[in-house]
Specification:
Blueprint (H helix, E strand, L loop, with lengths): L13 H21 L8 E2 L1 H8 L3 H13 L3 E4 L3 E4 L4 H24 L6 H12 L8 H17 L4 H8 L3 H9 L4 H19 L3 H20 L12
Antiparallel strand pairs: 1-3, 2-3
Helix pairs in contact: 1-3, 4-6, 4-7, 4-9, 4-10, 5-6, 6-8, 9-10
Length: 236
């Protein structure tokens, strides 16, 4: 795949062109992580990406720094960029934090479901991601899962809560464990999503919070059963 240079006008400043090129590289790497083409722990070679995308190594390296700031890759001297991989303990800690923060988000979403456009927004997203009869590829499931959880957080009405959750770098954890997800795990997750959605749409804050907490505890349970190879091989 090559960058469509025609998208950038000749009269645009050089730094603007470079900025758009970096954004393109960042988007490409993110997409390949989502699709499972890049996996946790994999080293990213600037030379290979440069040849693949038809872009000089400067913007590639700048994209690596941007992704490192976002927590998606790690930069190591004399080794370069590596797709970030979390340890078993780090994943456990994230689930503990998620249970509390997203439990609160679900409660607030139920409290605010009839404020503004919240009911319409949530209902439209729920219609897109609600369980169907056919199983989904894991990367599609992860995308829909992020959309579902993100919408609940966004309609909670608490901007600080939204910021806290966005800073948890949850995509890395989901991409890391997503490929190990079995159809049975997805089915359980779908069941939990139904209970959370029903509680939110019914405007039942207590039921929404408890359903979300239960969902995240059950998700953590199957993640803890994954082999050590699914996690960063480093002492916690």
């Amino acid at each position: 795949m090559t960058l469509d240079i025609g998208m950038v006008r000749d009269d645009e400043p050089a730094d603007q062109k470079r900025g758009e090129t970096v954004e393109f590289v960042v988007a490409q790497i993110r997409q390949r992580i989502i699709e499972g083409r890049f996996v946790a722990g994999q080293r990213l070679i600037a030379r290979d990406l440069s040849e693949d995308l038809g872009i000089s190594r400067g913007p590639i390296r700048e994209a690596f720094r941007r992704l490192a700031a976002d927590g998606l890759v790690e930069l190591t001297p004399n080794r370069g960029a590596t797709i970030r991989q979390l340890s078993r303990k780090q994943v456990k800690n994230l689930f503990q934090i998620r249970e509390n923060l997203e439990g609160l988000a679900a409660r607030l979403a139920a409290e605010h479901i009839d404020m503004g456009d919240n009911r319409r927004i949530f209902s439209e997203v729920w219609e897109k991601v609600r369980p169907r009869d056919e199983p989904l590829p894991w990367h599609v499931f992860i995308h829909q899962n992020r959309l579902y959880h993100g919408t609940i957080v966004s309609i909670s009405g608490n901007e600080q809560l939204c910021e806290l959750i966005s800073n948890l770098q949850l995509p890395i954890m989901m991409y890391q464990i997503g490929s190990a997800m079995l159809p049975a795990n997805a089915a359980v997750s779908h069941e939990d999503h139904v209970r959370v959605a029903e509680a939110i749409l019914a405007g039942d804050p207590e039921a929404a919070e408890q359903a979300m907490r239960r969902h995240l505890r059950r998700s953590h349970e199957w993640v803890t059963q994954l082999p050590d190879t699914a996690f960063r091989r480093k002492a916690d």
